[in-house]
Amino acid sequence: MFIQMHSEKFMRFPEGRTKALTFSYDDGTASDKRLIEIFGRYALKGTFNLNSLLFSEECRDWHGRMDEDETYETFADAPHEIALHGARHIFLDRVSLPEAVNEIVQNRVWLENKFNRIVRGMAYPYRAYGGEIREAVKFAGAVYARTTDSTHSFALPGDWLELNPTCHHGDSRLFELADRFLSARPERELKERDPMLFYVWGHSYEFDGNGNWDLIENFAKRMSGRKDIWYATNIQIYDYVRAYKSLVFSIDGERTFNPSALPVWIEIRGRVYRIDGGKTVIFEKP
Ligand SMILES: [Zn+2]
User: Fold this and answer.
1) 146 C-alpha to center of ligand 1: Å?
2) Cα dihedral sign for 106, 71, 80, 175?
3) Tell me, what CATH number does 86's domain have?
4) Of 76, 107, 249, 278, which cross-links 87 as Cys (Cβ 3.0–4.6 Å)?
5) Domain that holds residue 97
6) Does residue 274 form part of some domain?
7) How far does the centroid of ligand 1 lie from the alpha carbon of residue 128, in Å?
8) For 25-75, how does the pLDDT look when each residue is reduced to its tens digit (9 = 90+)?
């Protein structure tokens, strides 16, 4: 095993874990209930991206969207994040910028009031993002926004407002990626020592349409119960990374202060340290 000798530092997830797994599911359809049940069985966490003006009877034909009450009952007590997906699921690049802003703001106002919580995440409806839309998302106060562009990578997002997922659940490489993710040991590597994020997205109604609920069931089972994986919602990961990035270091890199309210974990010279909010830690000398 390679022992890190020098002062390079690596973010570790809560309790020193090297990996995180998260999910992102769109549109708020009735099949989300079955997906939530599967996530619950395997203690997985994710984010559900919801519209807020598509509750009429006609919208039921649109992949089984739920009405207002059903939406509330499905997500109010679920241990998952709810996030923005536009009020009406329109192409945000096919309306004026003020209308795009209104789509996101109305969506956020509704979700926050209905669910009595702060909503800061988003998934872009369709594939429209970038340019002015990015500004609209930012001004509406979203801190991250997911695209549908697969990276097939486990790197942490470089740009949270164009957050690219690892892959869609229907990707032919899903289980190959799962094997790679599960067998990786960043803490034993010389160069590939960075923390890893596996980010899967999709629509739960696709499992009904394709008759393949076993796919997500098998994936959930395979990924669950691992000591080195943090199972978290999108916003939990965002907040954690932000807290880690707020760490303040002395010039020699041997002392760090955590100005945030969250405890964060850091690895240096093969040792993992927990740094509580408001505390300073001096790393052990080599
Ligand atoms: Zn959608």
Assistant:
1) 11
2) negative
3) 3.20.20.370
4) 107
5) 18-244
6) no
7) 11
8) 999 999 999 999 999 999 999 999 999 998 888 878 888 999 999 999 999
CA of 25 to the centre of ligand 1 (A): 8
Element spanning 275, H or E: strand 271-275
Domain-embedded: residue 60:
yes
Question: How many domains, in total, are found in the chain?
Answer: 1
Is residue 270 in some structural domain? no
Distance separating alpha carbons of residues 76 and 115, to the nearest angstrom: 6
Q: Which residues are near ligand 1, the ion (C-beta closer than 5 Å)?
A: 26-27, 125
Are 65 and 55 contacting, i.e. CB atoms less than 8 angstroms apart? yes
Q: With respect to residue 235, please indicate whether it lies within any of the assigned structural domains.
A: yes
Could you read off the pLDDT of 134-159 as tens digits, one per residue? 999 999 999 999 999 999 999 999 99
Q: What are the E-state strand segments in 92-225?
A: 121-123, 144-146, 167-168, 196-202
* H helices present in 93-162, as ranges: 97-115, 132-139
CA of 27 to the centre of ligand 1 (A): 5
